[in-house]
Amino acid sequence: MKDFEQLFEQVAEQIDWSRIEKTMQLLGWTWVTKEVNIYSLIKTAKSLCKDAYYLGIEHNEMCESSSGGFHAFYKPEYNELSLYFAVENGCSNYYE
Q1: Quick check: 16 pLDDT over 90?
Q2: Contacts from 60-65 at CB under 8 Å and sequence distance 24+?
Q3: Are 65 and 53 in contact (CB under 8 A)?
Q4: What is the pLDDT of residues 28-56, one digit of tens each?
Q5: pLDDT at 95
Q6: Which among 89, 67, 84, 63 has a CA at the least distance from the CA of 75?
Q7: Helix axes 38-59, 4-12, angle to 10 degrees
Q8: By CB count within 10 A, which of 31, 37, 51, 90 is most buried?
Q9: SS3 for the chain, per residue?
């Protein structure tokens, strides 16, 4: 069974971090406490993934953690971690 670091590495390899960074810059989207750059994106995403992972293990059910456009899910029955970034407005959803 893969541990958290292995799962996050697998998920992170599938994400186009520069595309998310460019999207946020284009929209003028910033976080209150962080400058938006690829390092801060990865750090924020990893923190959310870690929350979902440990909550999922503790409760033995699928858990989600989300903030700043990122949504992380962990399904303990499959040892599966997933992550996506969403730009949302009141009318529709756009997914990266």
Answers
A1: yes
A2: none
A3: no
A4: 887 776 678 889 899 999 999 999 999 99
A5: 52
A6: 63
A7: 140
A8: 51
A9: CCCHHHHHHHHHCCCCHHHHHHHHHHHCCCCCCCCCCHHHHHHHHHHHHHHHHHHHHHHCCCEEEEECCEEEEEECCCCEEEEEEEEECCCCEEEC
